[in-house]
Amino acid sequence: MVRTRFAPSPTGFLHIGSLRTALYAYVMAKHDNSQFILRVEDTDQKREIGGATDALKNTLKIFGLNWDEYYLQSERLDIYLKAAKKLVTDGNAFYCQCPPRNAKTDGFSQILRDPCRNKNLDSGAIKLKVPDNETVSYFDFVHKKEISWETNGVYDATLLKSDGFPTYHLAAMVDDIEMKITHILRGHDWMPSTPIHLLVFKYLGGDRPEIGHLSDILNAKTGKKLSKRRDSVMAEDFLKAGYLPEALLNFVMLLGWAPKDNRELYSLEEFVKEFDINGFQEANPRFEDTKLKWFNGHYLRQKSDDELIELIDYPDKDKLRQILPLIKDRLAVLSDFDQLTSFFFKSPEITARLNKNHLTFAIDNYDKMIKGELIEEIKTKGWKVGDFFMTIRIAICGTRSTPPITETMLVLGRDESIKRLIACQAKS
User: Fold this and answer.
1) DSSP state of 131
2) pLDDT level of residue 90 (50, 70, 90 thresholds)
3) pLDDT at residue 111 in the model
4) What is the pLDDT of residue 102?
5) 8, 19, 81: which is closest to 49 by C-alpha?
6) Beta strand 145-150 with 135-140: parallel, antiparallel or unpaired?
7) Pick from 11, 4, 424, 421: which is nearest to 209 by CA?
8) Distance between CA atoms of 362 and 414, rounded to whole angstroms?
9) pTM of the entire predicted model
10) Predicted confidence band at 99 (pLDDT cuts at 50, 70, 90)?
11) What domains does the chain contain, in order, with CATH numbers?
12) Pick from 90-94, 141-145, 243-247, 323-327: least confident
């Protein structure tokens, strides 16, 4: 049986890397017909943002990542206190009364051996008593190799703060054992803390879960890890920008996992069925915006016009029904709609001088042009057909790239189309 968990902190919206972690954890469990657990790690009260827990839950539901069990760590403080005290009693942890220090502001390097570890104090924060001259190791099922550390380089980490709240080093390990988690998936930035966690698992007893550290997602342009400061990284922002949940999820699936047959398109259900733990990749994937847009365009085109009408925020549904067939194939994200259709609702500003003869001929022969009966006459005039219709495109739409121009004019109507042609004729 495979039991996995997704354990976010309620400190903001859902990072794209966290969405990937949640997806992989969900799929690992569901491929085995087992349980996926959502555990909100809200013990760092200073960093918690109001409403973040509900936002995280809602976003997971949007992507179809529904959990079987739910836990809130702040409701389990007694469990962590009991575990911390047992570690002290067993000689694997100690009380510390040193004031909290911050390496960024206090300018100190991490002290490996805390000065309080041999004072036999009976109150204060509780810290891990790291043994000397030992080796701790585990097999990483993502990296597919054994990874080890010498304990002489591992510091005495805080497990329980003096205010009674546990740190991640204690709470997550206690919960993983008590909740019978079999596989832990987490970001690569947790790798340096792993020797601490291996020791806590060892001292707590019970079955230790398998651990896998996912690769970092890189910005395709800079080659650097995706950053909240530099990049768009929140799943909610992509949804607001017009990306479909199924497209974003499909894109994220392949940021660190590869199928055997180079397949790219998966629904969530298909991914659950085809998932193979050996597909995890060690190389850092690159976040390619163009690839994401390709996925989104594909899923948009799979939707019926009625489905798209419900997704696009525009009040005139009848007008929308006329326009959609003309621009559907050009939509990459839903937010493109306004840009692609603005000329349907407002006459564009034309600053360029256009071919006046083209415009006059189009006005005089409008009905034949709409019926497609003007091609030979255009050639007779000695004009290139492409040049003629480019003049009409710019006059009607204000741009060289448009939906089929005759269909566009039919939607606009005869009066509006001729009005625009005449306005450009007068300026040319």
Assistant:
1) P
2) very high
3) 79
4) 57
5) 8
6) antiparallel
7) 4
8) 12
9) 0.89
10) confident
11) 1-71+215-302 (3.40.50.620), 305-336 (no CATH), 356-427 (no CATH)
12) 323-327
Residue appearing with tokens 């919960």? 175
- What gap in Å lies between CA 296 and CA 405, rounded to an integer? 26
Furthest CA-CA distance within the chain: 103
